[in-house]
Amino acid sequence: MSINTEIPVRVVAATDVAEKIRRIRLERRDGAPLPVFSAGAHVVVSMQDGGLLRRNPYSLMSAPHDTSGYEISVLAVENSRGGSAFMHRVREGDELIVSQPVNLFPADHRGRKHLLVAGGIGITPFLAMAAQFERDNTPFELHYAMRSRQAGAYWQDLLTRYGGHRVKVYFDAEGDQIPLPQLLDNQPLGTHLYVCGPAGMIDAVLLSGSQAGWPRENLHSERFLAPPTGQPFKIFLEKSQISITVGEHQSVLEAIEAAGIDAPYMCRGGACGQCETGVSHCDGELQHNDIYLSDEEKRAGNKVMICVSRFKGQQLVLQL
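The structure assignment produced for this chain is given below.
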């Protein structure tokens, strides 16, 4: 079963803050404080969308020391599977369920300085990090790239709060680029780098850090992968002795949950490894879409991350 304890919450504010970006504040329905979290944490939001249960992870952007409520930001995604569209329809007073906070992207407090690189909606975990670093009087620097001034969220507030010496903003529409080589070459020993944003940006920043000689343990990233769509397929659950059809817009995990089977998860985005499931038989092609398994493990084909992976073939038997 999932390690996440569910918390009933109510939407107390839902505000459009930029093109296609909405900020949502959630508070416990009983008025009690929410669990403390550390900067970089996320929660999984459960949404009853008609007859479908949707669960999406969202980074917590509010100050970690504020337990009166959680704040998240949701980007309206084109060709959404339904989660982001649902969250853009919620209104004040609507009720939702969230998980306990989980942190797969924590700040390393051994760092003498923290260099944050954000792209688009990837700014959200850094809002909480910046608040924590300021509270702890820890040196940090934020570099935030956006498509345009209108499409970027929170950049004006960040500049006002932390100043231009700590926050640098870049707009694609104005030809700006983050000067990665100079940034990486001019940091004090013991600096840690964190990146969150589009996959291409994350890959480029991590590669640049590696090529510049940064230790691997000083490079941190976070990415949640959305389960891809595809042709429906059938799976057989060996322990439960049931056959399930995974729909075009479903993940294996979602199909299993819809059948009433409890399966483990933390991120639901192919990153944490919590939903790793053994494969007893595979007559076809496993389409691994996670970033957790190694290439060797993917070629072996004896385990799969059921939150994002798909299957093409005749028979797939899972150890569930």
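Interim note for the steering committee: The radius of gyration is 20 Å. Residues 199-211 form the longest helix (13 residues).
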